[in-house]
Amino acid sequence: MDGFEARLREAQRAGELPAQASPRALAEYFTTVLQGLSQRAQDGATAPQLAAVAELALAAWPAAQR
Known about the structure:
Elements lengths: L1 H12 L9 H20 L4 H13 L7
Helix pairs in contact: 1-2, 2-3
């Protein structure tokens, strides 16, 4: 998760992520989502089911202010 957080901090410095966004919280959130998707896949979830969850998770992504 530390690498993911570091990359998000780079994106924030580059203006790709809003200044008010928390790279740590985003890294924790998306790490949790990815782990959940992995578990659901192991439990037999279908690709469309997993894609629907991924789409919902991406809706939480903060938009950069340009």
